Model the fold of this input.
Amino acid sequence: MIITILALFSCAVQGVTLDQLQQRFSLQPVVRADFTQSRAIAGMAKPLVSSGQLLIARDKGLWWHQARPFALTLLLDDKRMVQVMNNQPPQIVTAESNPQMFQFNHLLRALFQADRQVLEQNFTTDFTDLGKQGWRLVLTPKTSPLDKLFHTITLSGRDYLEGIELNDRQGDLTTITLSNQRLTPRTLTDDEQQRFVF
Amino acid sequence: MTNSSASYSDWHRRGAVAWGIICIALLVAAALLLPRAQINSSVLALLPKQSMGDIPPALQQGFMRRLDRQMVWLVSPGANGDSAVAAWWLHRLRALPLLQNLAGPVDEAQQQSWGKFAFEHRNGLVDGATRARLAQGGSAQADWVLAQLYSAFAGVSGRELHGDPLLLVRGAQLAMQGNAGGLGLSQGWLTVRDAQGRVWYFLHGELGGDSFDMAQGRQLVADLDQLKTELKTRFPGAQVLTRGTVLFSDYASQQARHDVSRLGPATLGGVLLLVFALFRSPRPLWLCGLSVGIGALAGTVVTLWLFGELHLMTLVMSLSIVGISADYTLYYLTERMVHGGSAPPLESLRKVLPALLPALATAAAAYLIMALAPFPGLQQLAVFAAAGLTASCLTVVCWYPYLVRGLPVRPLPAMVLMARWLAAWRRNPWVRFGLPLAVAVFSLAGGARLKINDDISQLQTMPAGLLQQERQITALTGQSADQTWFVVYGDSPEQTLQRLEGLVPRLAQARQEGWLKSWHSLPLSSLAQQQRDAQLIAAAAPAVIQGLRQAGADVADADVRPMPVTPAVWLGSPLSEGWRLLWLSLPSGESGVLVPVSGAVQGKALSSLADSLPGVAWIDRKSAFDELFGFYRVMLGWLLAAAVAVIALSYIARLGPRRGLISIVPSLLSLGSGLAALALSGHPLNLFSLLALLLVLGIGINYTLFFSNPRGTAMTSLLAVTMAMCTTLLTLGMLVFSSTQAISSFGIVLCSGIFTAFLLAPLVVPDSKG
Done:
C-alpha cells in the first residue's frame, strides 16, 4: 500500500505549499520509478533491505515489484489486492472479502486525487518548505487503525517524491528511497498493461 | 299426537338435558383451561414443524429459538462518524430489561486476552491457507513469512517474530478478517462504510428470557421506537436500522389484532342487524347469540385441549365460523316463522333435520379435511370449526324447540319477489339455462387467467419499512436474512467438527460451480485435524527458521508442541466471540453447527450435496415451506376433485343420472366462479384458495340440500338459504378486507363461490314441489 503514497507524490513540484503540491498530483497519468527499502526492526541486528521497481497508472492502479532479496509482486486496484510470490498461485484479496484492508486503500486513493479534506480527516499534516524546491510533509495519524500502526509518516522530495519514512508504533523504522522517476511514455505499454491482468 | 311422536319427544327431552350437562362441563373446562392458555402470534408457529430433516429435534429447536432471538442494529451517526452516538444507543439498549447479551466495542483488555489466547493455542488454531502452505514442506510458509516481514505496512515486529516465527497467529487472524463479511474493526467497534462513505456501527444482542410472548414483543418494539425518536431528536442526522424476528412477529400480531378488532364488530353487527330486520323480535337475536356462543365455547375448549394454545390467525379465521353456525338457528327459526302457527316446534325440527344434519356433516367434513395440511394454524382452525359447528347445531336441535315457543308467526318478507324468482327457475329457459351458462362462461374466462404462486411470504404482508431496513442491513453487512444454512451434526463435538471438515472442501467446489456465493464456517478444527496440523508444523518449522536466518533475521527455534483446543475451551475464550451462536452442544454430547450460506441459487444441488455426506443437512426454510405449500395445494386439489366425484355419485344414486348430474352443476360452477373471481382480482392460486374452495363446496352443498329436502318447501328453503348466504357473506366477506393477502384471497374465493352456489341452488328444486 505504501506504493499508493509514492504514487501520490511522484509528481513534479514547483510550488512550496501543500495545496500547490496536491494540485499537480492528478496531472501525471503514469509514473515509473526504482525503489530501495530498508526496514530496521527492533531486536534484529541488521536492517532488512529490499529493492525493485514500481509503476503507478492512475486509471489502473499500482504495481510494486520487489526483485531482491526475493521476488514478490503486489498489485493494488479498485477491487483487488493481489500478491504473487515465487511460483505460487496469486493470492487475491477482494474489497468484499476484506473491507478493512480496503478502507485503508480508499484513504490512500483519496490522497492520490489530492483530496486535502480526507487527508486532514485522517492525519495532522505538517508541511515544510525546505528551500531549493525541497519539501517535507509529516503526517501524524489521528484515526484508528492508522494511529495504532504508525507514529508518523514522513514524505519528502523535490521535483518528485524521493523518500518515505514510516515510524512504527512499536519502534521499527522503514525507509523507502525512490530514484530514476520516469513520466514517459504517458500511457502504459502493452507489457505494462499485462501486469494488471489476473 | 301419536305414540311415536310421544317417544320422539321423550328422546328429545333427554337429549336436551344431556346437552345441558355437556355445556356445563364445557364451561368448567373453559374456566380451567383459559387462564393457562397461550395466544400464539408467531408466524413461524403456523408453519410445519418437520422442516429440518433428520437433525436431532433438540438441536433443531435450540437453533431455531436462538436464531429467532437475535437482534441486530446498525447505527449511523451521520456526517461526522462519531462513535459517541453508537455508544449512546448501546447504553440505552442495555437499559431495556427485555434485551440481554448486548455486545459493545472491544476494549484494550479484551483485545489483549484475545491475543493471549490466540498465541497460547497457535499450533491448534491453524487456518486453511496456512495449512496449505505448511503442507508444501515449509518453503511456501517461509516465503510468506518473509513477505510479511519485508512489507512496510504489515508491521511484523521483532517481538512477534521471536514468539511466533511461523506467524501462525497472524495467519489465523487474516483468515478471520477475510471471513468477517462487510464488517471491519474501528476503535474497537465493528463498523462498515456504505457507498456514500457514511460509517455504520454494528451492534447485536438477543431477547431475554426463555419464552417470548406477544405482550413482551409489543413492549420491546414500542421501547425501540421510542429510543429511535429520542435518537433523532438528540442527534439529528443519525440513523438506526434494526433486524430481528420479533419485529415481524409483532407486526403480524398487530395486523391480526387489527383485523379482529375491525372485522369482528362489523361482522357481528351486520349479522345482528340482518336477523333483527327479518324477525323484528329480539328473541332470535339472543338465540343466534346463544348457539354461536356455545359453538365458540366448544371450539375454544376442544382446540385448547388438543393443542394447548390458540393461534392468533385461528382466531381471525374463526370469525368465518360465526356466520356459518348462525345458519342453523336461522334455518330453524325461518321454518318456525312460516309454519309456527300450524305445527308444534318438535314437528318443525323433524322437518328441518334431514337438511340440518347433512349440512352440518358436509361443513364439518370440509373443515376437517383442512386438518390434513400439516400447518398447526390450519389444524387448529379445522378443529375449532368442526367442534364449534357441531356444538352450535346441537344447541339448535336440543334446546330450540323449547326456546322458540311463542315466537311470532309472520308472513314471509319479499314473498312476491321470491315466488317470481322460483317461478322463473321453473319456467323461464333464459334463467334455467342461461344463468348457469353465463356463470360457466365467466368461470372459463377467469380460470384461463389463473396463475399459481406458492410463495409462503403471502402469509404475511411485510411492511415496506421493515423490508427496506432488511435490505439495507443485508447490503451493508453481507449477512442476508435468507435463512439458508447447512447444519452439521454428530454424536460428539469431535464427530461434528470432523464432519464439518468433510463439508468445507465440498462448499469450495460448490462455489466454483456457482451454486452459492459464500459461507461462514466455524474457525475451529477437530482434535484429529489439530493433530495433523501439529505434525505439519513440526515438519515445516526447520525450513521456515532456516529461511528467516538466511534473510538476516535472528530468530529462535519455533515451539512445535501440540496446543489442542477443545470446543469447550474455545467457546469459553474471547476468540469465539461472534461465533458462539452457530454452535450448540446438548448435555448428551450431541452437537450441531450452523454454516450460514448466502447467495444460494442451486437449492437442489446443495440439498443433494448434503445428502451425500453423513450428518449434514441443507436447510432453506423458505423454499422448503414453498414446496410444502405447493405439495398440499396439489393434494387438496385432488381431494377436492374426489369430494366432487363422491357427491356426484351420491346424487346419481339417490336421484338418478339426470337429476343427479343437474344437482352437481351448482357445486361445480360455484367452484369455477370462485377461481375466476380470484384470477380476475389479480390474486394467484395457492393453498389458501384451495382451502376456500373446500369450504365453498361444503357450504354450497348446504344450499342444495336445503332445496332438495323432500320435507321442506321451496319457499322456506329459499328464505333460509338467502339468510344463510347473507350472514356468510357478511362474515366471510369481511375477510376480503383483511390486510393479509392470504386471508383476503381466501375471502374472495369464498364470497364469489358461495354467492354463485346461492344463485344456482334453485336449479335442483324438484318440479313437483313448491
User: Anything to note?
Assistant: The interface with chain A takes residues 129, 140, 143-144, 146-147, 149-150, 152-153, 155-159, 161-162, 177-178, 180, 182-187, 192-193, 478, 551-554 of chain B (CB under 8 Å). Chain B has a mean pLDDT of 84. Residues 149 and 155 of chain B are 8 Å apart (CA to CA). The two ends of chain B are 26 Å apart (CA to CA).
